[in-house]
Design a protein that fits this description.
- The protein is mainly beta.
- The chain has one domain.
- Helix content is 9%, strand content 37%.
- It contains 1 helix and 8 strands.
- The strands form 2 sheets. Strands 1-2-3-5-4 form a 5-stranded mixed beta sheet, with no helix packed on it. A 3-stranded antiparallel beta sheet has the order 6-7-8, with no helix packed on it.
- It is globular, with a radius of gyration of 15 Å.
- The chain starts with a strand and ends with a strand.
């Protein structure tokens, strides 16, 4: 799991494949993409990451996990097991859910419903008067 600096791409410049920058180069979101393979064990690890991971080269203003194949509660069939101080975005409320996005409470995010279903969740994030779009997509 890596630190990612998000930014708009200004002056026709493109960031590297791993890092994009915002106006203050020392601040950014920590973003992880992870397939949990429908298991509770990686959920526990992800919760530990949210609570303890520190990025070495920038100040984190929030953490975001783009998740595929989340652990589903056997009774509700909804993603579960995530720490309580988080926001969980799910694209569908029924059937087999195969993608979701988890953010900590410091992230100013909202779900973009027209780009959501059982296999895809899309959120918008407002930061530095810009809006960034993130998507978690399960591709069978």
């Amino acid at each position: 799991m890596n630190c990612v600096k998000m930014a708009s791409l200004n002056n026709n410049s493109v960031g590297s494949t791993n890092i994009h920058t915002i106006s203050n180069l020392d601040i950014g979101y920590v973003v992880s993409q992870v397939n949990l393979h429908k298991s509770i064990t990686p959920v526990i690890y992800l919760n530990e990451w949210f609570n303890s991971y520190k990025c070495n080269y920038m100040e984190s203003i929030g953490k975001i996990a783009l998740i595929q194949e989340p652990y589903l509660n056997a009774f509700t069939k909804q993603p579960s097991g995530f720490f309580k101080e988080s926001k969980l975005f799910v694209g569908a409320k029924k059937d087999k859910i195969r993608a979701c996005i988890l953010t900590d409470n410091s992230v100013n995010a909202w779900q973009i419903n027209q780009f959501c279903n059982n296999d895809m969740v899309t959120i918008g994030i407002k930061s530095d008067n810009k809006i960034y779009i993130l998507c978690s997509l399960y591709m069978p």
